[in-house]
Every structure is written in structure tokens, then in C-alpha cells.
Design goal:
Elements: E1 2-5, H1 20-29, E2 32-36, H2 47-53, E3 56-58, H3 61-67, E4 70-72, H4 79-82, E5 90-93, H5 101-109, E6 113-116, H6 131-150, E7 158-160, E8 163-165, E9 169-173, H7 177-188, E10 192-196, H8 203-208, E11 212-213, H9 234-250, E12 253-256, H10 271-275, E13 282-285, E14 302-305, E15 308-311, H11 321-338, E16 340-341, E17 346-347, H12 354-359, E18 360-363, E19 366-367
């Protein structure tokens, strides 16, 4: 089996799909791993280090794509490169399949078996392969650090001869993987932290990190099979915003993380709510790439509204690209090891495996994922 890792082409993407340690793991299985020359440049890893790990270095990107059995990336393939992939090739990456239907159709037309890593089921077996969780954890950390480097105050209490500085109030909306890491990071920096989630079951986790859980009686809520909060009704969302407004008004930093699998992120923080916040406050909208939780946020921009800075940076894990690449790479290597056929020395789908049925988007020229078939 020959696997090829091309350089990422999406603007601003500095992560890489495989680091040398993971290359060594896969070569040890019997896989042939090739990388595009300069792959590790964005994270300061030279081609020589990859060669020592057992990788082949390829300068001809098109030729390598045409000859590979498996292609490994971080992001979706460029449309103009899908035609280079040989029929029967397996493509593995984050695909953003719900929003990239044209890419999915092109992969199906080319007969490219496709794994969308964002579709990985949240089951115990798949935890070590869970790219979304590993990247979300880093994003939660980066969101807090971004807020700390933007606001004109420090997070912790400080008692000095010149006076006492009160700790900042941080309000985190959404307590999934990203939210939990944001809570932990803000607490380490010395802030007073409050958090809200539509799922009452996460209250214990919030308390375990030393934060206060904000309760709102929304009636029936729950979570999806992927571990995301379920979409709220219009009435529930209005009630949530009413409580959120009061807590946002008291906060120095607000971080929003709320996303709904396969759908546009809900707008939680309205412009009216921002206008009630104190000037100098900072909001970080972690859901900006999926539509945004903050009405005023714009992708990759800092918007000022009534003295409040609204940060809408995309690809937060890419801001700590070295560690993000290491974690992504370990997830990817674990997935490949899971499906490695030792006798045939190749990567094989097991159609009865839940991780296959959950992540396989295209197989045998057809879109096979139930949520992505025509009409859904």
C-alpha cells in the first residue's frame, strides 16, 4: 500500500496530516509512505527528518497523487485535483461533507472511496481516532489565549501596594470538548469562570474544573449521537438568550462554542446583547466557520461594536500548528492501524465496523453516508 501526504493548499492552513513519528508507526506496519517535498515546512520539520522516519520525498505532486492507493490530508481535496486520483483510491481527511457537496459528488464520480473524519462516531473504540475532539481541545485553549492577548486587563486577581486588581469574569457558552478546555485554561489563568450548556448532564464536569454552571430550564434538550447539543426550538432559544444576556453583560470575556452537527451554528449572542456589555470586553466566536454564534462576528476579522471586540478567527488549532499536527497525525495513524490488514499489508474497509459505516462518505462510486445521500 502506497500512501501519499500532499501539502495543504487551503489559505492559512499550517497543519500537516502526518508528522515523522506517525510515519515511522505506519512504515513499521509495512506501509509505503510518501510525502510532498516541503510538507513539514509550516511546522519547522525538514524533509530530512521525514526521510529518517522512513518516508519517501516526492517533488512531483500530480504524479504522486496519480500513483497512490491512499491520500491523507487535513482538509478537503481541491476540486481540480480530484481528477488526478486513481479509481479505487482511498481519500482520508476532514471533508466538511455537509457544505462541500460538489466535492463529494466529484469524489463519487471519480470512484474515490472517501473517509470524512468529521463523521467519526463518538464511541469508545474511536476515541483515539477522534480528530474533531483533539482539534477542539486545542481550539478551546487558543480561544482563551486569544482573548487574554486582546483584552486590556489581566485574568488573575493581583494584590499589590498599588492596589488590588479583581479577577476577570469569563463566560463560556457550550461545554463540549472545546468549552471544557476553555474553562480549564481560563481557570489556570486565574479568572472567575461561568459556563452554560443546554445539556444539564455536563454540570458536574463544569464544577469539577472549578467553574460555576449557569442553569436555564429549557425543558427537553439532550444531545445527538455525535455528542453535540440538539438544536433548540425558537422558544427555547429565546429563553436561553434572555439568561445569556444577563451573564454576558457581567462578563469581561465571552467565548462561544455551540455547534450543531451538520447544520449552521445557532446565533446565541445578538447585537442587542453585545450593546449591553461593558466597553473593553472581548467575545471569541469559536463557531464562526459554521455560521457563527455571535450575530456581529465575521470570519477572520475582529469587529468592534459599542467598544466590545468580537473575534471571529477561523482555524484556531492552526494557531498552534505543531501540536495540532501531532494530535491529528496520531489520530490518523490510529485509524490506519485499526484498518490495517497484516496479511495483505494494506488498508481495508470492514463494512461491519461502526467506524467505517460512520465515516465512509463515498464507496464504489456512490455517496453512501445516510445523511449525505441525495434528498437529505
Amino acid at each position: 500500500m502506497r500512501a501519499f501526504v500532499p501539502r495543504e493548499t487551503q489559505s492559512g492552513e499550517s497543519r500537516v496530516a502526518l508528522v515523522p513519528d506517525a510515519v515511522q508507526r505506519l512504515v513499521g506496519l509495512g506501509a509505503e509512505i510518501a510525502i510532498e517535498a516541503g510538507l513539514g515546512g509550516p511546522i519547522s520539520i525538514s524533509d530530512e527528518v521525514y526521510e529518517k522516519a522512513g518516508a519517501q520525498i516526492c517533488s512531483d505532486r500530480e504524479s504522486a497523487l496519480r500513483s497512490s492507493d491512499v491520500v491523507l490530508r487535513v482538509r478537503k481535496p481541491p476540486l481540480d485535483e480530484i481528477g488526478f486520483l486513481k479509481r479505487g483510491c482511498i481519500h482520508v481527511s476532514l471533508l466538511d461533507a455537509f457544505n462541500e457537496r460538489e466535492v463529494v459528488r466529484a469524489l463519487a464520480a471519480g470512484g474515490i472511496s472517501t473517509i470524512g473524519l468529521e463523521m467519526l462516531p463518538r464511541i469508545t473504540l474511536a476515541q483515539k481516532m477522534d480528530v474533531l475532539s483533539s482539534q477542539a481541545s486545542l481550539a478551546g485553549y487558543v480561544a482563551v489565549i486569544t482573548a487574554a492577548s486582546t483584552i486590556d486587563r489581566i485574568f488573575p486577581m493581583m494584590m499589590t501596594p498599588a492596589g488590588t486588581l479583581k479577577p476577570l469574569r469569563v463566560f463560556i457558552i457550550g461545554v463540549g470538548v472545546a468549552g471544557l478546555q476553555a474553562i480549564a485554561t481560563a481557570k489556570r489563568l486565574g479568572a472567575r469562570v461561568e459556563a452554560f450548556d443546554t445539556r444539564p448532564a455536563v454540570e458536574e464536569q463544569v464544577h469539577s474544573l472549578g467553574a460555576k454552571f449557569v442553569k436555564v430550564d429549557l425543558g427537553e434538550t439532550g444531545e445527538t449521537a455525535q455528542g453535540y447539543a440538539r438544536e433548540l426550538t425558537a422558544e427555547q432559544l429565546a429563553k436561553q438568550r434572555e439568561v445569556m444576556a444577563r451573564h454576558c453583560a457581567k462578563a469581561d470575556v465571552v467565548i462561544t462554542t455551540a455547534q450543531i452537527f451538520g447544520k449552521k451554528a445557532p446565533v446565541i449572542v445578538t447585537t442587542q446583547m453585545i450593546e449591553q456589555m461593558q466597553p473593553g470586553s472581548v467575545i471569541v466566536d469559536m463557531a464562526v466557520e459554521s455560521g457563527g454564534n455571535v450575530e456581529a462576528s465575521k470570519p477572520d476579522e475582529v469587529v468592534q461594536l459599542n467598544g466590545v471586540r468580537v473575534i471571529g478567527f477561523g482555524n484556531l488549532p492552526g494557531r498552534v500548528a505543531r501540536h495540532a499536527s501531532e494530535m491529528y497525525s496520531n489520530n490518523l495513524a490510529s485509524l490506519l492501524e485499526h484498518f490495517w490488514d497484516k496479511e495483505a499489508k494494506t488498508f481495508k474497509f470492514n463494512q461491519e465496523d461502526e467506524t467505517v459505516t460512520g465515516t465512509c462518505v463515498v464507496r464504489d462510486g456512490q455517496v453512501v453516508h445516510p445523511q449525505l445521500k441525495e434528498g437529505n
